[in-house]
Amino acid sequence: LKAQSILSSSCCPGGKRPIQQSMLPRSRSSRHAFKSKESLEKERLRHRTGGYFRYEDVRNPIDVAQSCPSHIGNIERMTAGPACEEVNFNEREQRKAARDEVTEARRSRNYHREESRWRAISEQEKMGEERLRRMQADPMMGRKNVHGQPFNIVNHDYDKTPAGATRQHHDNMIRYRSKVREAHIAVRNHLGFNPIIGEQTHEVSLPPPPRPPPLMPLA
Question: Which residues 6+ apart lie within 8 Å of 9 measured at CB?
Answer without folding.
Answer: 15
